[in-house]
Design goal:
single chain; 7-stranded antiparallel sheet
């Protein structure tokens, strides 16, 4: 199904993609059966197409007007376009977070189970500025505050999610997620110490070899953290008297 619709998307220069995503979601949703009753996806591809055109208009305005102003200011004050490119890139980041929240809200608002739909409260701009702050803290701390960011942003999303009149709640703390990042932090510290040592010795070959060895190990450690945090966050979600659990395991997920 996905292969055939992918070919149609290519032949229609991408326009069939909106119908493809709708059909695939209906297929995926029908395969998820809590209590033996499948989920329903009732999204409309024309809505996606309209949303795409709106996004194109917004991006066209941003690229054509805002970037032109940034270029003028950059050349006037800094005699170059580097500052304009940097500010333009930073300006797109909140739009990306905004779009992620809106996309989640759209999908859940068109998802039903037993005839009752899910929903998400408005809050895309609130999510966007929070995401910017937490990402800055997480990266600025060398990922030490990454568990805090993971928990707080998940809590913001989940606490605004509904199933009918039943509100979801995200419990737990960021501290419970920190243990999952210990292998990643240990590898990062090991890499940092040895980079400094090889850099002082001017040994580029050893530095390259170290990077080739440590990089995949960092990827595995990050995968382990992602699966573990998902499992813990799922276990601390509630919807009234309803609880949730996940049996996802890192070796299985990484293997896939």
């Amino acid at each position: 199904m996905a292969f055939g619709m992918g070919i149609l998307s290519v032949l229609t220069l991408g326009f069939y993609r909106f119908w493809m995503k709708t059909r695939l979601r209906r297929y995926y949703w029908s395969s998820i059966k809590p209590g033996g009753r499948p989920l329903e996806y009732v999204g409309d591809p024309l809505e996606k197409l309209l949303g795409f055109f709106i996004a194109v208009v917004i991006l066209a305005f941003y690229i054509g007007v805002v970037n032109l102003i940034l270029m003028f200011v950059s050349f006037s004050l800094f005699d170059g376009n580097t500052v304009a490119y940097f500010v333009s890139f930073i300006g797109v980041i909140p739009l990306w977070f905004y779009a992620r929240y809106r996309a989640r809200r759209y999908v859940l608002a068109r998802t039903r189970w037993r005839g009752i739909r899910f929903g998400v409260d408005p809050g895309a701009w609130g999510y966007a500025w929070r995401a910017l702050v937490y990402w800055a803290l997480a990266l600025g701390s060398g990922t030490l505050l990454w568990p805090l960011m993971t928990h707080r942003l998940e809590k913001f999303r989940i606490d605004r999610t509904w199933y009918g009149d039943r509100q979801f709640h995200q419990g737990g703390t960021a501290r419970m997620l920190a243990k999952g990042l210990i292998p990643f932090w240990a590898l990062l510290a090991f890499f940092g110490v040895n980079v400094w040592r090889y850099w002082a010795m001017d040994d580029a070959e050893a530095l390259l070899g170290l990077a080739l060895v440590v990089a995949p190990m960092l990827g595995l450690a990050w995968g382990w953290y992602s699966v573990r945090s998902f499992r813990l966050l799922t276990a601390t979600k509630t919807a009234g008297a309803i609880g949730f659990c996940s049996q996802a395991r890192a070796p299985r997920i990484i293997g896939i």
